[in-house]
């Protein structure tokens, strides 16, 4: 019975990993589509037990928003959705206008303002290296970390048995 539970757990981790990779591919595709329009400001509001939010805003040279898309959700099934109300608006004016920001929920507002902060830093050439690091570190995914921790536990137990 315990073996079946272990097998189910491993299969669940593998499925989560595969679906996580699919979500990363969706992000890459969406980012590339927006990048073809104009430079992209990224805002994030990651949460552990609440709905995490990620927003991609394609901003033209004059500050107008060419297109904006948002991914919000707790699970790996979250997808990007277009924010049509932002198209054509000036990013600085939206960030400064409470009236325009209040049309969004709190998580989206925080995420939008993070994207605006990143946009301002980009324009002022004050981005830090980790602000524009787009690499995907697959070996630091939660599933891989869990497998590594289990592996190291098993290896240490085996070494302890050999020593006794």
From TrEMBL:
Superkingdom of the organism of origin: Bacteria
A Pfam family: GutM
InterPro entries in alphabetical order: Glucitol_operon_activator
Protein name: Sorbitol operon activator
Species assigned in the record: Liquorilactobacillus mali KCTC 3596 = DSM 20444
């Amino acid at each position: 019975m315990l073996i079946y539970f272990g097998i189910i757990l491993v299969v669940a981790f593998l499925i989560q990993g595969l679906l996580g990779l699919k979500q990363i591919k969706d992000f890459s595709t969406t980012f590339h589509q927006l990048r073809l329009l104009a430079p992209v400001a990224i805002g994030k509001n990651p949460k552990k037990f609440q709905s995490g939010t990620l927003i991609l805003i394609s901003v033209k040279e004059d500050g107008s928003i060419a297109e904006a898309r948002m991914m919000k959700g707790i699970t790996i099934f979250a997808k990007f959705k277009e924010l049509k109300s932002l198209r054509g608006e000036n990013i600085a004016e939206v960030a400064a206008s409470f009236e325009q920001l209040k049309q969004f929920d709190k998580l989206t507002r925080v995420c939008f303002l993070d994207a605006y902060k990143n946009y301002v830093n980009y324009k002022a050439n004050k981005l830090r290296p980790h602000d524009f690091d787009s690499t995907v570190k697959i070996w630091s995914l939660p599933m891989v970390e869990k497998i590594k921790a289990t592996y190291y536990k098993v290896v240490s137990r085996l070494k302890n048995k050999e020593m006794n």
